[in-house]
């Protein structure tokens, strides 16, 4: 068994503006994921209580937040692709 030594990969440097944009994209995605999770939990509580109409409303809200989270994720993916 042989071991090949390679030089450490140099860390990519990005501008402060690009770095801030990446930070904002990650935070935005996280906020929407958190809200989606909250709405899913609300939907579950409503189902448990037999309030299926309220559960449906919470589910729609959760799905909307998931869409927004995915849009933020796509923006971040584009940002990373342009910097690669």
How would you characterize the largest beta sheet?
Answer: none
* Poorly predicted ranges: none
Instruction: Bin the strand percentage.
Output: under 5%
User: Based on CA inertia axes, which overall geometry fits?
Assistant: elongated
Count of the domains: 1
Q: H/E series, N to C?
A: HH
Task: Determine the number of helices (DSSP H or I, runs of at least 4 residues).
Answer: 2
* Helix/strand structural class: mainly alpha
Helix content: over 70%
- Radius of gyration (Å): 20 Å
Mean pLDDT level: 90
Number of strands: 0
The end-to-end distance, rounded to whole angstroms, is 33 Å
Task: Tell me what the structure shows.
This protein is elongated. Helix 1 (16-48) runs antiparallel to helix 2. Helices cover 77% and strands 0% of the residues. It has helices at 16-48, 52-83. It is an all-alpha fold and 84 residues long. The chain has two helices and no strands. It has one domain (16-83).
